[in-house]
Amino acid sequence: MIFTSVVLTALAANSVAAVPQICTRQSGGQFVPKPGYFPATGDDTIAGGIFCISLSDLGTYLARVGNNPGATGSETPRSGQATSGSGPYPAQAFTDPKLAKHTIFAPKTPPPANVTMPILAWGNGGCATDPTSHKNLLIEIASHGYVIAADGIAGGKTGASQSMVSDMKASLDWATSGGAAKYGSVNTSAIATMGHSCGGLEAMSSAYHDERVKRILMFNIGIFQDEKRYLLQEIKVPVAWFIGGPKDMGYPNVEKDYKLLNAGLPAYKASLDTGHGGTFAATNGGKQGKAAVAYLQWQFRNDLASKAILLDPKAPGSLVSDKWTVEYKNWEGY
Length: 334
What we know:
By secondary structure, the chain is an alpha/beta fold. The protein has helices at residues 5-12, 55-65, 135-142, 165-176, 198-207, 251-260, 286-301, 304-311; strands at 91-94, 102-107, 117-123, 147-151, 186-196, 215-219, 239-243, 267-271, 325-329.
């Protein structure tokens, strides 16, 4: 993979960035945005799909805005310990021959039959084909009763340098056709796409025009290019962003995206001073792990204690008490 010097210099400073946290060009043509033009699907010839940015355009963007993707913050963690998660269902990584280019994160033993597990599809930072750098977060979420299909395998030897929207779509197809049922009782009407950096834009591109997806979670990323923001008109499900403060190269773009979602669409935005690398390397995914679990438990299980953690600054263990800055809208009735 070839990088511009501006990207290399920035990433070299980021100790948690084992993979480049960007979207890069693949061969062939590329989606060209034009107001009023809405392609049928979010697929594109660049990793991350139609909401993403090519490597050459990224270099131009970073040079213009002076944003450093390798910057860290006061909440940037040191590497933590590997665990089976803090939830009631100790979890691990699996491989599945029916989804051979992915890694499944799920409880080690199926939970009781009355516990139905939502399905999550995950895209890695840099749209990498190895989820190892996000393993602590994904095992933590899975331990609370979720089945996660993550792009790539340990070592990244999938035959591709990056994942594409088609890879996340393959996760959804696998789950909805019965592939996830071996891990326990699953709820294929409760599906979210999510990811870090390029993987987050892949999550949004995968959710675009796919009615199977009910929620989108984006970590440390927003749409880079103003000319693509009109596509947000086609996002019809709630979106949550977990970002790394003003030092995060995703921060200024999330501020724009949050304001431009369709009127009345629920949205949640929480920012913690980590820079672009987040807290994935911390034990159980750190503060991002806690925030993600709370959001998913609220959204898919209507857990009111989790809702309070997210929305009420005075609630025990609230995100605000953990030094997150929180903003949300249109959740009345949810």
